[in-house]
Every structure is written in C-alpha cells, then in structure tokens.
Amino acid sequence: MRIGIIGTGTIAAAVVEGMAVDGHPITVSRRSDTKSAALARKFSNVTVADNQEVVDASDVVFLGLIAEQAASAIEKLKFRQDQKVVSLMSGPSLSELEDMVAPASAVANMIPFPGIAVGGSPILVLGDTSIVTDLFGARNPVFHLNSAAELSAYLAAQAVLSPTVLMVRGAGDWLGQQVQDAERGEAFLRALVGSSLTSAPDCRHLLQSLDTPGGYNQRLRKHMESQGILEQLNDGLSDL
Ligand SMILES: NC(=O)c1ccc[n+]([C@@H]2O[C@H](COP(=O)([O-])OP(=O)(O)OC[C@H]3O[C@@H](n4cnc5c(N)ncnc54)[C@H](OP(=O)(O)O)[C@@H]3O)[C@@H](O)[C@H]2O)c1
After folding, report:
1. What is the position in ligand 1's atom list of the atom closest to the CA of 73?
2. How high is the pLDDT of residue 91?
3. Integer distance in angstroms from the first to the last C-alpha of the chain?
4. Does the pTM of the predicted model rise above 0.85?
5. Nearest atom (ligand 1) to Cα of 67
6. What is the pLDDT of residues 147-177, one digit of tens each?
7. How far does residue 2's CA lie from ligand 1's centre (Å)?
8. Between 31 and 229, whose confidence is greater?
9. Which H/E stretch holds residue 127?
10. Residues 6 or more apart from 211 whose CB is under 8 A from it?
11. 16 lines ligand 1 (CB under 6 A)
12. Domains assigned to the chain
C-alpha cells in the first residue's frame, strides 16, 4: 500500500513513526520541514514531496492538517477515483470531506494519540476501519465508533487524561518531598498507575481490588469523593 501524508505535523509524524517500521512506501508533505526531513532521515521508505506529488504517489492519503487550514490546502489538489482518504482531523465531517476530495473516497476519520508512534495507544475510528486496522491494529487497540455524536463524546471524555496526569504529578510532588529521589518517585507512580489500568479487566474490578477496608487507597478515594471529585468531573465533562 502506497501511503501519503498531507500535513506532517505533530500527530501525523507520530502516525508515520507508528507505521514506517512495516516498510510501506510513505510520501510526506514538505511543510513542517523539520519534521518531514527528520522522518525521511530516520526511515529509508519515507520520502518528502510537495502536496500534489504526495497525492499522485499514494493509494491512501492521510490528512493531518489543522481543520481551519484543510479546505484551502485540499482545494488545490487533484485526487483520483481509486484513492482512499483518511482524515486525522476532528473536523470537517466525513461527508464534507467526501466533497472536498472527490473523486477519491473519504473512508474514515481516525483520531490517534501521540503514543501511536510507539504502539499500545488507542485509536478512534469513524467510518471504514479496514485501512486503520491493517496498518495499526497489530500494535494498537482500534475503537470503531457508530456516529459523529459518539466521536464527539469520546473526544470530550478523553480529556480525563490531563486531570489524571495532574493527580499523578501531584502525588509525585508530594512523594518527592518525603524521599531522596523525586524523579524516581514519579517514575514509580507512572508505572504503577499505567500498568494497573491496562492489566485490570475494567475500572470496576480495579476499584474493588483497591478497596481494602481502611487501606491507603480506600481512605484517599473516600476523602476525595467526599470533597466532590466525581461531581466536578461530571460537571467539567458536561461543560466541554
Ligand atoms: N496533536 C494530537 O494529539 C492530535 C490527535 C488527534 C487528532 N489531531 C488532529 O490532527 C490535526 C493536526 O494536529 P497537530 O497537532 O498535528 O497540528 P500541527 O502540528 O500544527 O500540524 C498541522 C500540520 O499541517 C501543516 N500544514 C498547514 N498548511 C499546510 C498546507 N497547505 N499543506 C501542507 N501542510 C500544511 C503544518 O505545516 P507548517 O508547520 O509548515 O505550518 C503542520 O505540519 C488537527 O486537525 C488535530 O485536531 C491531533
């Protein structure tokens, strides 16, 4: 499969890192030349070209543009009927994109996260999942969504990541004041939280296993619940 990338920014560069190891021929657009040149230096199967050359050289074209820049960048390009387009952008919608890239087909809206560069990172997909699963499914869990409304809800809910990281960092700062090596303390907490979440079957079971009566986990959780942490989370998500 010949792959093209228009808009080689932060997320598209991570996407390229995540699939280049499989040896597909990948052509990336020249803009953000530090990133595109670095990818071409790192992977012999990655080449840099202008936008139309990227389209011409590809069976599948990924769009990694900022939504506001997409229309003006895409309208200058000529796509072919046999091509498939996968958008990494949270907008425009798939049907809007279909008009923009005609006669090519806009097959999927894929929302990756930066961890896709190394694998083990969840990918949200609206539309046809086959290309995304073929390219990334062996190394990353793919979540197929049913509607644009579901995609919006997932995009809002994933914002729990930042407060979660803030809590781990806060606990790391607290730990760092009690121990000699603060960095090692934070590394311990990151490994503990990450591995506990991924190894448990779900959050309900994990919470049960952390609910030893009078134990540290139960006491801290009850303290924070009594301060309204869940109400704050729900209010914050509803306001997004
Ligand atoms: N960052 C994330 O974690 C993440 C996750 C999922 C989805 N997304 C979505 O992915 C999209 C890109 O986000 P990002 O964070 O990667 O932004 P970004 O780093 O700013 O990337 C945008 C890229 O588009 C390039 N560009 C702008 N106009 C262009 C044109 N006419 N032709 C070719 N390239 C052009 C920019 O190049 P210059 O630098 O030269 O202007 C830049 O490399 C957004 O729609 C975002 O919502 C992001």
Report:
1. 31
2. 84
3. 38
4. yes
5. 45
6. 999 999 999 999 999 999 999 999 999 999 9
7. 21
8. 229
9. strand 123-127
10. 217, 218
11. no
12. 3-145 (3.40.50.720), 160-239 (no CATH)
